[in-house]
Amino acid sequence: MKMAKEKGKKEGKEQGISIDELAAFCKRKGFVFPSGEIYGSLAGFWDFGPVGVELKNNLKRDWWNFFIRARDDMAGIDGSILTHPRVWAASGHVENFSDMSVICKKCKKVSKIDRFEIDKAVCNLCGGELDKKSAKDLNLMFKTQVGPIKENSVESYLRPETAQLIFANFKNIAECSRLKLPFGIGQIGKAFRNEIAPRDFLFRSREFEQMEIEYFIFPDEKCPYKIPDISISVYSAEMQAKGKEAREMKIKEALEEGVVRRDWHAYWLSQCLLWFKSLGCDLGNFRIRQHKKDELAHYSSDCWDIEYKFPFGWKELTGIADRSDYDLKRHEQFSGKDLKIFVEGKGKILPHVVCEPSFGVERAFLVVMLEAYEHDKKRENIVLHLAPNIAPIKAAVFPIVKDEKMIKLSEEIYKELRKEWSASYDERGSIGRRYARADESGTPMCITVDEQSLKDKNVTIRWRDTTEQVRVKISELRDILRKVINEGQNVFKLGRRINTRVK
Ligand code: GAP
Fold first, then answer.
1. What count of other Cβ atoms lies within 10 Å of the Cβ of residue 230?
2. Ligand 1 within 6 A of CB of 201
3. Given a cut of 80, is residue 408 above it in pLDDT?
4. 322 CB within 6 A, ligand 1
5. How high is the mean pLDDT of the chain?
6. Whose alpha carbon is nearest atom 9 of ligand 1?
7. Which residue stretches of 17-137 are H helix?
8. pTM: predicted TM-score of the whole model, two decimal places
9. Among 29, 58, 214, 458, whose Cα sits 20 to 30 Å from the Cα of 417?
């Protein structure tokens, strides 16, 4: 399988695709539209189009399989978006979940900054000096009223993170899942933040989705898992304080040298990076950066971000915080309920969350798009080298010409493939145009029915990344696609390679 690393990414980046160009491409091809666009749209809200929703769902499903289903130390939940407001008082969000808005002296636009940046930050947009006197601390939670009759209603919040539903349900989940420490609880779902300055396309939105894990251990428990052999650019808090550059290291070495303090962090950072790698991402465009003391969230004692080299600079893609027993303790205090679990031989324990791998779905979406995007000069069209397991459309079926029999056979194949995957059927325009359309939506395989297919019941599969072709039996198509999509097998080992001049 030719992945982004070999074909698209480096070239795409060197050509310098900007985030606005990506947004325009996403709109044109039906990945993402500004929400409410016919009314002028609302900043920070996005709608996913026909191919976008498939890609987003595939990403979420792949994450769930990788981190939850495939592991025997994990359980999943799906918590509600609105919950009891005391959850947000206990979590500290009512008190602490704020950013600062500051007006730029030069361009007069509002910038969002973190509290600790007040003395050094400049305007996000023009780099101008910020007017400190205009600084306001603003809570980012969306308030709403639960119950239509105002006098009887309760004021609550749209959840700003999915994590709290895991903590509030901790005891229920621990008891019914019968998992033993160490174990994790994962969740995928919407989160809402009334961001001061939503920008950079999907990167900072007001409505987005998170994929989060809270990983619970005995306090001070050692990580029993092997740290995979994986190299990455490492940027510790100390390196940042001393003005040093990030350093390429094996995560194992970073742990041995004490750059990464806890074995659990080394382990979870590796797992998260391995997931991005499994999606075809080039880890050369990733780094891990430790939070400096003054930027740690109110609940966190240590935090490493996985950052990605976005077109607008290195930015957070995934955060992995050590939340210790902050949340469970606070929920015990605020609810008056005992959230400890009984562990044979140890008695009652309040576990610690040693790592909270927290992913933004939209940021992962941006990264796989940026990694996949290539302007192929030879083909004169965009090629999205999305890995087959996440590609929105797995196969496009074409009759080579508009012949009744070929159309009929193509439609039969198309119907058959749709039982298992999203597929498309295209009979309009030249074959070259149809290939180009498929390339631009990241469809890895184009299946062509020709004159010969009517006689021998074979078809041609054209592989998106190389344009090379292979001839296979129609009766084996579904099995071949399963091997390519689910197992990442090489299509050229599953059929007879043929020579062709068609691009
Ligand atoms: N439970 C921990 C937590 O919510 P966070 O760093 O605030 O931590 C986790 O958010 C992830 O959620 C981020 O790494 C990012 O991927 C995503 N995220 C946060 N705010 C976002 C926003 N406004 N728009 C899009 N994604 C966002």
1. 16
2. no
3. yes
4. no
5. 94
6. 358
7. 19-29, 50-64, 85-90, 93-96
8. 0.94
9. 29
Contact 388 CB / ligand 1 (< 6 Å) = no
Q: Are 144 and 82 in contact (CB under 8 A)?
A: yes
DSSP three-state, residue 305 = strand
Which residue has the least CA distance to atom 26 on ligand 1?
360
3-state secondary structure of 171: helix
For residue 193, report the distance from its CA to the centre of ligand 1, in Å.
Answer: 9
pLDDT of residue 13: 45
Give 294-318 pLDDT, tens digit per residue: 899 888 999 999 999 999 999 999 9
pLDDT at 2 over 60: no
Mention every residue, 6+ apart, whose C-beta is less than 8 A from residue 440.
Answer: 29, 381, 382, 383, 384
Q: What is the pLDDT of residue 3?
A: 37
Query: pLDDT digits over 38-57, tens only?
Result: 999 999 999 999 999 999 99
> How far is the C-alpha of 500 from the C-alpha of 483, rounded, in Å?
24
Query: Which ligand 1 atom is nearest residue 204's CA?
Result: 24
Instruction: Locate the ligand 1 atom nearest the alpha carbon of residue 321 and give its number.
Output: 2
Pairing of strands 46-48, 341-343: unpaired
Choice from 167, 363, 366 to test ligand 1 binding pocket (greatest atom count within 8 A of CB): 363
What does the H/E/C string look like for 363-415?
HHHHHHHHHHEEEECCCCEEEECCCCCCCCCCEEEEECCCCHHHHHHHHHHHH
Q: How many residues does the chain have?
A: 503
List the alpha helices (DSSP H) in 50-186. Answer: 50-64, 85-90, 93-96, 163-168, 170-177
Cα 389 → chain centroid: 14
Task: Write down the number of H helices and E strands in the chain.
Answer: 17, 26
Q: SS3 for 60? A: helix
Specify the residue with its C-alpha closest to ligand 1, atom 21: 204
- Pocket lining: 210 vs ligand 1, CB cutoff 6 Å: yes
Give residue-wise pLDDT tens across range 325-354: 999 999 999 999 999 999 999 999 999 999
How far is Cα 216 from Cα 213, in angstroms, rounded to an integer? 9
Please tell me the distance between residue 211's alpha carbon and the centre of ligand 1 in angstroms. 10
Q: Copy the structure tokens of residue 437.
A: 């359309």
Q: Inform me whether the pLDDT recorded for 1 exceeds 60.
A: no
Cβ(367)–Cβ(317) below 8 Å:
yes
pLDDT score, position 113: 87
For ligand 1, pick from 316, 324, 356, 368 the residue to mutate: most ligand atoms within 8 Å of CB: 316
Work out whether strand 154-157 and strand 341-343 pair parallel, antiparallel, or are unpaired: unpaired
Task: Please count the other Cβ atoms lying within 10 Å of the Cβ belonging to residue 256.
Answer: 13
